[in-house]
Amino acid sequence: MLYVFGEHIGNGIKPIQLEPLIAESTSHCVLSGHRPGTKDPCFYAYTSGTTGLPKAAVIKHLRVFYAAVGVWVAAGVRSRDILYVPLPLYHMIGVLGATLPIFTGSTSVIRHKFSASKYWEDFNRNKCTVGLYIGELCRFLLAQPPKPTDGQRQVRLVISTGLRGAIWSEFVNRFNIKRVVEFYGSTEGSSSLINITGKPGAIGFLTMIIPDFIVKIFYPLTIIKVDVETGEPIRGSDGLCQSVGSGDVGMIIAKIKENDSLYGFDGYVDQEATRKKILPNVLTHGDYYFVSGDLVTIDKYGYIYFKDRIGDTYRWRGENVATNEIEAMIARFCDHSDAAVFGVEVPGEEGKVGMAAIVDPSISLDLVNLLKYLRQSLPNYALPHFIRLLKELQYTGTSKISKSDLKREGFNVNAVKDPIYYLDTKSMSYKLLDKDTYEDIVNAHFRF
Question: Which residues span the domain enclosing 426?
């Protein structure tokens, strides 16, 4: 449905005029002594809920303003641009699609629900010039069969979050995208990053030329050493957290400045959830930082790359395994089919062994060549030792794969009807997991 206030420029869609609806609304004034301001809550935005239940984050008016103006300036949105917004308005990218026109004078075309098959048809019909994405949508579009309309109209600008480096170039080339501005920031976080140079795979940049103490004054983000499974910070003898060097993996955190509209943390409706997101005594005793839960790495030039979510990364054979990279490899082999990788516990073994859930409705995936493909780039400890083929995966409201049920069900053939395969390390091949082999595994009679 298209709601219009004032004059409507026809595009084939019959609009619903807002004026009559406003006239029918109540004229009674709600009496209140409160004078609303920029620091009042604007709305509640729910987190993705990929590993647990979504949390209601408090988003204040000033935060919405900063987000819209920041993206406007950094990305260069113009008054003559037409933005295509297929995301829900409770997602922060969707919020940008609704607020950018207020500040820039641009136009937003808002679709009630994302459709990979209809995306470019809508985009071209409405003469859009700017696309707003999350990384998962880019993968869904690439999974569509090629069409003559692919790249028919040059996309002047893409504003995205989560566009994986593994598909970046393919996405840009296939759909004729002139410029990508990738940014990083959680719904409720106190700081963000942005990649305005179009460096493939980078979520942002921190200068390596200016002294670190000066950078932290104006851009209070840092990357610290943590246990990648638990998220617990690794502290030095002074009790403070330790920063990572280039090439190392750490968790990105953002300083919380009390009563600061830009760098404050407004938290969640649930106060206990708010407390868990605040890390004290990071760089100095008495300071506080927002815990992102995201593992990243920084290169020698200052570009930052997303590695994984804490809770998704697992440890096997004394090595850390990042699920995000393996998911990207499987998706590439399977023509962008959806895949979720996670760690599962096995009796008698330390750590967790890797498992992949792959969408394959026809149960025809070539596991022999998949294993060969993965072994070209992955060490043996990082290979998925279990593979589950299923018809579909469950998604959150923001199109992210939900792993909670997958982790709970694991490789239990008594609870899962989908075929599950295990890696026979003697023959280095995937074999169908039957109940006898399953019993051997759960009774610690099986060697990985």
Answer: 332-442
